[in-house]
Amino acid sequence: MKILVCVKQVPDAKDVRLDPKTNTLAREGVQSIMNPYDRHAVEAAVRLKEAHGGTVTVLSMGPPQAAEVLREAVSCGADEAVLVSDRAFAGADTWATTYTLAGAVRKLGGFDLVLCGKQAIDGDTAQVGPGLAWRLGIPYVTCVRRIEGCENGLLRAQRLMDDGYDEIEVELPALLTVVKEINEPRIPSLKGKMKAKKLEIATLSAADIGAEPQCIGLAGSTTQVVRVFAPQMTGGKTMITGTVDEIVDQLAAKLEALR
Amino acid sequence: MLKIDREACIGCGICEDTCTFGAIEVVDGCAVVNEKCTLCGSCVDVCEAGALAIERAEKSSQADLGAWKGVWVYAESRNGRLAQVAFELLGAGRRLADDLGVELAAVLIGANIRHQADELVAHGADRVYVADHPALADFTDECYSRVLSALIREHKPEIVLAGATAIGRSFIPHVASEMGTGLTADCTALEIRAEDRTLLQTRPAFGGNVMATIECPHTRPQMATVRPRVMKALVPDAGRAGQVVEVQPASGALESRVRVVNSVVEEQEQVNICEADFVVAGGRGLDNAEGFKLVRELARELGGVVAASRAAVDSGWIGYPHQVGQTGKTVCPKVYIACGISGAIQHVVGMQSADTIIAINRDPAAPIFDVATYGVVGDLFEILPRLTEKLKGGKST
Ligand SMILES: Cc1cc2nc3c(=O)[nH]c(=O)nc-3n(C[C@H](O)[C@H](O)[C@H](O)COP(=O)(O)OP(=O)(O)OC[C@H]3O[C@@H](n4cnc5c(N)ncnc54)[C@H](O)[C@@H]3O)c2cc1C
Ligand SMILES: Nc1ncnc2c1ncn2[C@@H]1O[C@H](COP(=O)(O)O)[C@@H](O)[C@H]1O
Fold first, then answer.
1. pLDDT tens digits for B238-266?
2. Second label for B211, Cα 20 to 30 Å away, from A25, B29, B313, B345?
3. How far apart are CA B58 and CA B129, in angstroms?
4. Residues B176 and B219 sit within 8 Å (Cβ to Cβ)
5. How far apart are alpha carbons A119 and A138 in whole angstroms?
6. Does the CB of B4 have a partner CB in chain A at under 8 Å?
7. Probe ligand 2: pick from A97, A122, A141, max atoms within 8 Å of CB?
8. Interface pTM (ipTM) of the complex?
């Protein structure tokens, strides 16, 4: 089975803060990490390979330093890594991102299965998986929490729904996006780390994948960010003061009135 | 590409300080951009010398944006029930449609759902398109996308909204791809910019630490998924008039390469913190699981439910179904009482649309007071028991 996993390098979202006064993001100490959901996608791919044979290729679109997350994926069991990187990709929204990733997938040849994370924690959009499947003309299943089996070109899985889950069957080739419950990602092995260190990472430019300049990066994006700001806090903010008894009396009166 | 006018640049370094991504640097008295640049434009806005510009290739717009008219809402229906978010979207959609002076329509997809159309009209729809077919009983991305895309292509609405639910977030990106248009996920505010009738879509990013307003300038429809429990539904009016249009999906639209073998509805959680009028929430300030007793007693007295911050859930004092916030539930009760909760933005996004917010915290500088309608600086261990007692007393007299 030929498996492709899309991985993204993201800033560790929990450290990102917007300074409400200057309206700029505080980047001090913000680390770049592999998107957490994508680690589960890599693990799912490696387990499928171990069960059914085949290869796992990891693909990322991003700046040159995104190679780090590709190496991390290889240290966890992926076989090959490809970076699509070009200044012209900057400013891409999900529409331009799926165009670029799809171009890279075509260049690399067909895959039986493409795995993505449910969403990337920088934007939380969860759009790249479904959009990429559409570009590739293959079926997809989102929020997969378990892969139950794979035979005769059919993959059986469970997808998480708001009120429970669905057991589904999908024809391969297909794309899945995975949630964290699907598995516990392994710690890189020493052998894996050695391999990752030595691995040549193939880099594809916009020209290599035959991308049209008007379809990539900012120019190829359908959405535009018009404003970035710190979340607003808007309360009436009446402070209730006094002794504990006085406070309790006032609170009780307000609550009685609202009942 | 970010263009830097080397003549105009005075090397002041404001752009370097502003750049979120560490992508611009002053070298030898002139700004230099590196590959981390995402073309966000922040530096262009702050440059006092006018030395920076973003070159945008003139985008070939979809022919005639003006031909697209009307606001649409995808009305999610599953297991014979309309999702609450469908009504919320109609509430939001009604406001947008009125601002634009256009019709509001709902799209209903499923099997044996025709009767649900009236409820959508009562909640504000002028028109309901119903695709009722046995093959649509199970949710599959391919079929639902094709049905909705075909309708959009035929009727050309300028705005299409859906709930940011498991279903909405799964198939709406496919529909947006099919239409070749932009999609903004998980919005928490929607607004029309009157000058050019553009939909401004606001959403949290970076785990809620940052808000971004996004537009879709060149293509139609403008599409967004909207977070449940953020928009307000209208009070239903059974007397409202609306048109119900039955649509017959093309047979090719009903083939799917994904088959739902079994659909399992898991036991509905006992707690439904989203439906209650009174929510009493506890945080780390409760100190331990025992502390939740105080919260529980007040909630019981008010006929409400108990909620919690993530810190309290992570400490194991109460279960995850009670968590409010970015990674928990969004609630919008009449009254939300936050006890020993600091008011981190990830918590606040889940409760800030409550009608009245009461905060009890011993730290006068706690950010929770910024969202509170009424704030009390004090010790919850003193206040809560007496408040519960007082309310009990109040009722008997
Ligand atoms: C990606 C991400 C997602 C997150 N999602 C969520 C989410 O969904 N929901 C959520 O809640 N958080 C979430 N968080 C965590 C959030 O950032 C905060 O850490 C969390 O909300 C803090 O909980 P708290 O207010 O209970 O605890 P603390 O911040 O520790 O606050 C405790 C408060 O109790 C007060 N206090 C202490 N003792 C007393 C007393 N005796 N009387 C009165 N007041 C007292 C203190 O003054 C303090 O203000 C998320 C974080 C990240 C990074
Ligand atoms: N630049 C990228 N390179 C590779 N994969 C990506 C990229 N952006 C998104 N993805 C994949 O798409 C998933 C969903 O991302 P998003 O739609 O941005 O939330 C991620 O978990 C990745 O698997």
1. 999 999 999 999 888 899 999 999 998 87
2. B313
3. 36
4. no
5. 19
6. no
7. A97
8. 0.85
